[in-house]
Amino acid sequence: MIPPKPPARPEKVSLLKYVRLFRQDILSAQPAKLYRAWMAEFKTPFFRSYLINQPSLVKTVLNERPRAFPKSDRIGAGLRPLLGNSVFLTNGETWERQRRIIDPAFEGGRLRDTFPAMWDAGQAAVARLDEGVHEVEEITSFAAADVIFRTLFSIPIEDEIAQAVFSEFRDYQRTQPILNLAAFIKGPKWMPRLFRKRTRETAQSIRTLITQLTSARMAQIGAGTAPDDLATKIMTTADPETGDTFTTEEMVDQVAIFFLAGHETSASALAWTLYLLALFPEWQDKLAAEAKALDGGCDFKMMSKLRASRDVFREALRLYPPVPMMVRETTCPETFRDRDIKTGAQVVISPWHLHRHERLWDNPDGFDPARWTTENGKQCMREAYIPFSSGPRVCTGAGFAMVEGPLLLSMLVRHFRFETTDRSPVPVAHLTVRSKDGIWLKLTKRAHDA
Questions:
Q1: Which residue, 59, 244, 257, 432, could crosslink 88 as a Cys pair with Cβ 3.0–4.6 Å?
Q2: CA-angle at 221, arms to 220 and 222, nearest 5°
Q3: Cα 176–Cα 180–Cα 185 angle in degrees, nearest 5
Q4: Phi and psi dihedrals of 338, rounded to 5?
Q5: 250: nearest Cα among 86, 90, 124, 115
């Protein structure tokens, strides 16, 4: 059985047709040949774009010469109303300074500190559920948002401001395409981006709410009453080179991306993982049996026992990487595969295609969590697996996500059995890889909870 995969577009389409398809869904807008190609060129009247799947080229761009390939603003410009000048969008010295301040909050030892908050969010997610048919993207979105608020600001999702941010963000998702005018016509920052009115309004509303949380925390830090969570850690960490800390406005930018990256991507990954477990019940039973380790209570050491859960979550990230494409820009002439590439060209790295590449992976479209113990799986893990990107710009929260995902997954299947319905999900990509009409599963309490 092959999990759902978007249909590929015809080999040749007009630019207008491509833009139209791209705005609807960037995955089905691509031709099937990208699952076999090492490199592909896409031409428009405004720029050249090169998608690269060859592992050595991906390594060059992300790991070996990242400064020569900064993030492109063609895609990022569409997110600026919400994310401002966050670490997700910046380059050069600004980005380096931001990472020097942010990274210490996510170091290994801090994961142990945030684990109780993750545990509480997982327990709350289980308690909210009941038997019946549910749309699980909504369930995982709520749970992932709860994790972010508890670990970042020590407040549950039921908090009034947290609930308002979550509600506004759902509106933002529905109005924000991944592509706008800036993606095809690069211009100065003052150039109109043609954002929908509702997109601008929801982005501003979210930032206003985050500003309230951030300002309140600044006051607590000043009074010496702030809890020891991620927000406090980041806001009190000084840049080791300059001694500066984030201003309130700078912190608002960073909280916005923490919420987007930490909530939206985790929700996507968890929802697809639950669907895959419903599709392959033998793996779900393995995870449910393994999850008995949770019965001992909140203890970070138990994560080492959730091996099957980790492998399943890792496989879901391979098949449905939340961020399906990353765009970089050349800063000088390059030569890739004997092809000359000019300065200012777009270099697209697609985890979606790389993770399913027919010349790299055994059974690329199949669900096989056991692959990670095979020689092919180990090699591809090193060379062709980048759900969190790679190199200096690897996601700061990658370690965080690899604790949160298997933990929440194990807690959910420990208490509930998930089964498919007659509604098969269709993957589409907007902000992240989601299902076109949601992921609908039937939930039944497991016997020990009945």
A1: 257
A2: 90
A3: 165
A4: 65, 20
A5: 86
Note the pLDDT of residue 181: 42
With a cut of 80, say whether residue 344 has pLDDT above it. Answer: yes
**Four-residue CA torsion sign, 99, 102, 104, 109:** negative
Three-state secondary-structure class, residue 11:
coil
Cα(241)–Cα(100) distance, integer angstroms: 9
Give yes or no for a contact between 414 and 292, defined as CB atoms under 8 angstroms apart.
yes
In this prediction, residue 184 carries a pLDDT of 45
Write out the H or E segment, with its range, that includes residue 291. none
The rounded distance, in Å, linking the Cα atoms of 419 and 274 is 9
| HEC sequence for 324-392 | CCEEEECCCCEEECCEEECCCCEEEECHHHHCCCCCCCCCCCCCCHHHHHCHHHHHHHHHCCCECECHH
Alpha helix positions (H), 154-292: 160-175, 181-184, 197-223, 230-236, 248-259, 265-279, 281-290
Which residues on neighbouring strands pair with residue 427, listed in sequence order?
A: 435
The residues facing 336 across adjacent strands are 339
- Distance of alpha carbon 322 from alpha carbon 270, whole angstroms: 10
Report pLDDT for 44: 74
Q: Which of 40, 174, 330 is nearest to 30 (CA)?
A: 40
Give me 15's structure tokens: 């630019």
Q: How far apart are CA 237 and CA 427, in angstroms?
A: 40
User: Within 10 A of 327 (CB to CB), how many other CB atoms are there?
Assistant: 19
The two tokens of residue 67 are 């400064």
Contact 318, 387 (CB under 8 A): yes
Measured CA to CA, the distance from residue 369 to residue 309 in angstroms comes to 9
Q: Are strands 433-435 and 427-429 parallel, antiparallel or unpaired?
A: antiparallel
417's tokens: 């059995």
